[in-house]
Design goal:
single chain, mainly alpha, 64 residues
Length: 64
């Protein structure tokens, strides 16, 4: 499940984690939020040394 839209940038890291956890409870096997400044700050606070931006390929195909 890929999450996006204007509201995503307003969600904190714990709020994003809650949403992905709820997805898992519904049977979603993978959840992804777009990488942004909040993602970078969270990972840096966790001690990550290498950061890569995650985003869908421009040619990605989606189910309805």
């Amino acid at each position: 499940m890929e999450y996006g839209g204007d509201g995503v940038e307003k969600l904190s890291s714990p709020e994003r984690a809650t949403i992905t956890n709820m997805g898992a409870e519904l049977g979603v096997t993978t959840s992804i939020f777009p990488s942004d400044k909040l993602t970078k700050a969270f990972l840096k606070a966790q001690g990550a040394r290498t950061l890569r931006q995650a985003q869908a390929d421009a040619s990605a195909k989606y189910d309805g």
